[in-house]
Design a protein that fits this description.
Layout (H helix, E strand, L loop, with lengths): L2 H28 L1 H9 L8 H13 L13 E3 L5 H17 L1 H12 L5 H4 L2 H33 L9 E3 H18 L2 H10 L5 H6 L1 H15 L4 H34 L2
Parallel strand pairs: 1-2
């Protein structure tokens, strides 16, 4: 195929993916009451499952009890006439993207499959299932762990008693949606490293050399969003460290396989 033919294929990939997102977004729009009350605004409630888990953990092991709360000390407000309507629309689109993610992956696979060997093309189903599962686990990790930890920290942070926290709806939604989607994409790290190692852009040695810096970044993130106790920080740190180590193993395997193929001509 020529360069223009590839661009045409890419254009139709984006068109089909956009249609899938819109369709899934329309479905999500019909369940907007459930999405907002039971999912998006749920971390604001002191009875949210994450807060109860950390509170029980704190009571059991005599740790920091900042999660034993009844309600976060801030209110959410909409300051524009169309604020709630536009929020509903864009939240539905975000939900549509999350729901349509497996289809988008399938479109992506069809786009890159001509560049793959025949033996690699047969792993399409494995690729779609594995990548989708990692993404959904990441979204759940972000929503049920990172989001409530961040809300608890930021909602209770004070520079002075003079300042009252009335959080804008867009600001709250931005944190919730960005955290969930970002964590979903971060959990794709092993898949991304697979393709980068396959084309020779990343090596296992590079990841090992920068492991200490990666761990420092992970620990800083965990320290920011968690209470000042080791247990909470470990709960956030361990999954991210595991992802990084799995990425190293995948990169090492792909580097070895690529060198073997180059040696065989």
């Amino acid at each position: 195929m020529s360069f223009l033919d590839h661009l045409e294929e890419l254009r139709w990939l984006l068109v089909r993916s956009s249609i899938a997102i819109v369709i899934c977004g329309c479905i999500a729009f019909t369940f907007s009451d459930f999405i907002f009350d039971e999912i998006i605004f749920a971390p604001k409630d002191g009875d949210f499952i994450t807060y109860r888990f950390f509170c029980d953990l704190a009571n059991k092991y005599d740790l920091d009890k900042s999660f034993c709360i009844k309600q976060l000390p801030f209110e959410i407000q909409s300051r524009t006439m169309d604020g709630q309507f536009s929020t509903d629309i864009w939240t539905s689109i975000t939900a549509g993207f999350i729901l349509a993610f497996p289809f988008i992956l399938w479109e992506f696979w069809k786009f890159i499959s001509p560049a793959l060997y025949d033996r690699e093309k047969k792993y399409a189903v494995v690729f779609i299932i594995t990548t989708s599962i990692l993404f959904f686990i990441g979204v759940l990790f972000g929503h049920y762990l990172i989001t409530p930890l961040s809300l608890n920290f930021l909602g209770n942070y004070k520079i002075s008693d003079v300042v009252k926290n009335d959080i804008d709806l867009d600001s709250y939604l931005s944190l919730v949606k960005t955290t969930a989607v970002s964590c979903g994409l971060v959990f794709e790290m092993p898949v991304i490293m697979y393709f980068l190692a396959k084309i020779g852009l990343v090596s296992a040695g590079f990841l090992r050399n920068y492991r200490r810096y990666a761990y420092v970044i992970i620990l800083i993130i965990a320290a920011i969003v968690t209470p000042p106790d080791v247990v909470s920080q470990l709960i956030v740190t361990i999954p991210l460290v595991i992802l990084y180590e799995v990425s190293i193993l995948i990169a090492a395997r792909m580097n070895k396989k690529r060198l073997k193929e180059e040696a065989n001509g």
